[in-house]
Specification:
Length: 196
C-alpha cells in the first residue's frame, strides 16, 4: 500500500519545513507512546524514524515523503516529566507553532497508549485541538500488550470520557507496531482523506 518512503528533513523551525504542497499527516502524543515506531510500521521500514526505549527520543520535526505524494511527520512527544521546564516549554512552543501554522496538515494523529485510563494531559491536548479547529484522529497504540477484551474495554472507557466534552467523536483507530494491527486501516484512512 505504501511503495516508497524516504526521509526528507529534520528541523526546529516551522518555516523550514518542506513546501506545504502535498497532504500532510503528523503523529503526536506523549513521549514513548510509539509515534516513531508507528511510522516505521506503516512504511514497512524498521529504521526510518528513530525509536528508543527511553522517552524523549524524537526532538525535532521530521518529515518523510511517501510515494512522492504525501508527507508523514514525526513530532517530539509531550508530557515527559523528566525534562527540564525550559526544554518542555521549548517543545511545547515548537509543537503548537507547527500544529497551528502548517496549512497542509490534513489530519493530526493523536496517539494514546491503550493500556492507560484517560489521562488529563491527553484530554487537555485534544480539547485544545478542538478549540483551534485542528482536524485530528485518535490512534490507540500498543494493542499487543492487552488481550482483545481489555482493548475493547479501554477503548470504550475512552470514548465515554470523550463523550463528556464532545458531541461528535473523532475517528478512533487501534494499532500495534509489533504485530502490524491497524496498518491497513490507518493507510486506508489516509488515502481516503487524500482524495476527499
Ligand atoms: P518519543 O520520540 O520519545 O516521544 O517516543 P515515541 O512516541 O516516538 O515512541 P517510540 O516509537 O520511540 O517507542 C517507544 C518504545 O515503545 C520503544 O521501546 C518501542 O519499541 C515501544 N513500542 C512502540 N510501539 C509499540 C507497540 O505497538 N507495541 C509494543 N509492544 N511496543 C511498542
Ligand atoms: Mg519518537
Amino acid at each position: 500500500m505504501i511503495k516508497q518512503a524516504r526521509f526528507l528533513i529534520s528541523n526546529t523551525d516551522v518555516s523550514k519545513c518542506p513546501p506545504p504542497d502535498r497532504p500532510e499527516y503528523a503523529f503526536i502524543g506523549r513521549s514513548n507512546v510509539g509515534k516513531s515506531s508507528l511510522i516505521n510500521m506503516l512504511t514497512g521500514q524498521k529504521n526510518l524514524a528513530k525509536i528508543s526505549t527511553l522517552p524523549g527520543k524524537t526532538q525535532l520535526i521530521n518529515h518523510f515523503i511517501i510515494d512522492e505524494t504525501w508527507y508523514l511527520v514525526d513530532l517530539p512527544g509531550y508530557g515527559y516529566a523528566k525534562l527540564s521546564v525550559s526544554v518542555k516549554e521549548k517543545f511545547q512552543k515548537l509543537i503548537s507553532k507547527y500544529i497551528l501554522n502548517r496549512e497542509n496538515l490534513y489530519c493530526l494523529f493523536v496517539l494514546i497508549d491503550i493500556r492507560h485510563e484517560p489521562q488529563k494531559i491527553d484530554v487537555e491536548f485534544i480539547t485544545w485541538l478542538g478549540e483551534n479547529h485542528i482536524p485530528f484522529a485518535i490512534i490507540f497504540t500498543k494493542a499487543d500488550k492487552l488481550g482483545k477484551v481489555s482493548v475493547e474495554k479501554n477503548r470504550a472507557a475512552y470514548i465515554q470520557e470523550l463523550s463528556k466534552i464532545w458531541e461528535e467523536l473523532p475517528p478512533i483507530l487501534v494499532s500495534s507496531s509489533l504485530n502490524g494491527t491497524g496498518r491497513e486501516e490507518i493507510i486506508s484512512f489516509i488515502e481516503n482523506v487524500n482524495v476527499s
